[in-house]
Each structure stands twice: as C-alpha cells, then as structure tokens.
Design a protein that fits this description.
10 helices; mainly alpha; FAD/NAD(P)-binding domain; globular; 239 residues; single chain
C-alpha cells in the first residue's frame, strides 16, 4: 500500500511536470506498472520544451505505412490517416532476445531449456545470469533493471567470484525454485510479459548477489542512510 501511494504521488508529479496530458501522451499503464515492467525511461533535458515550441512533434498511432511521400500514421480514433513528409525514417524494431538465446543451440533439448514450449516463464536464469540446467552458459544483460549498466557490472563481478570458486551454485532444484519464486513476484506486479524486469526488486537482487559473494549487503554507512538514501553504482565499487 505504501509503495502504491508513493508511486501515485510520483505519477502525478511526472504528468504535471512534463505536461503529458497537454501533449496527449499519458501512458495507459500506471507509474507502478511501468516501473515493475521496466517501461520507465528518461528524456534529454529540455525535451518537452522542444515539444512545446514545436521543434519536436509527437504523434500517437495504432499502425503506420510507408509511402512515396513519407509515412502514413493511422489512429483508431481518427477517420483519416495523417501524412508525415520526411526524407529519413529511423525504424527501431527492437529484437527478441529470448529467440536469439534459444537459437544459440542446435539441440532441441537445449532450446527447450531456454524456452520450454508449455512454460509461461521467460528465459529462466538463476540470479539473472545462469541457466540452472546449462550452468556453463552465463548470460549478462538479458533482464532489465532501472539502471542496466551497473546492474550488469555487478553480475559480471558475481560471475568472476563464481569462476574463482569463492562460492558454489546451489542444486538445480534449488535454483529452479528460486527462479520460479522471482518469476511469480515479477508477473504479479506487471501485466507486461515481453521481457524479464527486476526493476521493482533491484536492490533486493543486488543484496542476493552481495550475499553470494560474501559481501555485506548493507552498503551505506549507518542505519538511517541504509534506509533512506538511494542506492547507486558507487555503493558497489568494493566488497
């Protein structure tokens, strides 16, 4: 309840500060939902000022088509499509990381380990790094967080400690149980199943990595700092 209330306050402030209602780009999902699904993003300083002055034009559409003059944008709420005259289009299609991981292997058995046909779980990774049934394969950067760079750096440190035999992996059954528990938590808090997101569990996840490596998970100097100061990359620069 406390988390929901805080997110509602932040959501209202972000809407007002960035004038989202004025520009007609209020997201369909709540701030809490977006955070749990790693759909929260940042924009350059002054971005919405540029939108206000008209040098950046925002358009919402349900579908689009290329034509000789540019791009046709179709909106379900509009009777006729709008034409955008342009010379250059950057088509950012994204990619399906789970499919790419799956097709690393030619063996159907190992492909099913990555993406089981009847499973709702995305790529099941212990500590978002190691597949319980393919422990020789380490995957960095597949799961999203609110700060991917330092999250990936900490996972790399975790892997280095693992390869150095500073700690050992649990049994396959224990790792799969842990993956299933985290998957249930992330799905409970998000309606978006396109990717794995640990945004709402980021500090807890880092705590687990620290405990594995024998580090103290309380990274701040003092009780009040640990509870109320934000955690960031500099908190994990040393054991």
């Amino acid at each position: 309840m406390q988390k929901w209330a805080i997110c509602k306050v932040v959501e209202r402030k972000v809407k007002r500060m960035n004038r989202l209602e004025k520009f007609g780009i209020v997201p369909e999902c709540s701030f809490l939902e977006g955070m749990n699904a790693c759909l929260i993003s940042t924009v350059p300083q002054g971005f919405y000022d540029k939108v206000e002055e008209g040098s950046i034009i925002l358009k919402r559409c349900s579908t689009f088509h290329f034509c000789k003059e540019g791009v046709l944008l179709n909106n379900n709420d509009s009777e006729s499509p709008s034409l955008i005259n342009n010379d250059l289009v950057i088509f950012a299609t994204g990619f399906k990381g789970d499919q790419k991981l799956k097709h690393i292997f030619s063996s159907p058995k190992f492909q099913d380990y990555i993406m089981a046909p009847q499973s709702d779980t995305l790529v099941p990774l212990y500590r978002e790094c190691i597949h319980p049934r393919i422990p020789q394969l380490a995957i960095i950067g597949f799961s999203d967080s609110l700060s991917n760079l330092y999250s990936s750096e900490l996972k790399c440190r975790w892997l280095a400690e693992l390869f150095g035999r500073k700690f050992m992996l649990p049994s396959i059954q224990d790792m799969e149980k842990d993956v299933s528990t985290i998957d249930n938590v992330t799905r409970k808090n998000s309606n978006h199943d396109s990717k794995t997101c640990i945004g709402a569990l980021h500090i807890w996840h880092n705590d687990q990595l620290c405990i594995d490596m024998g580090w103290n998970p309380k990274r701040k100097n003092g009780f009040w700092a640990d509870w109320f100061e934000p955690y960031g990359p500099m908190d994990y620069t040393h054991p």
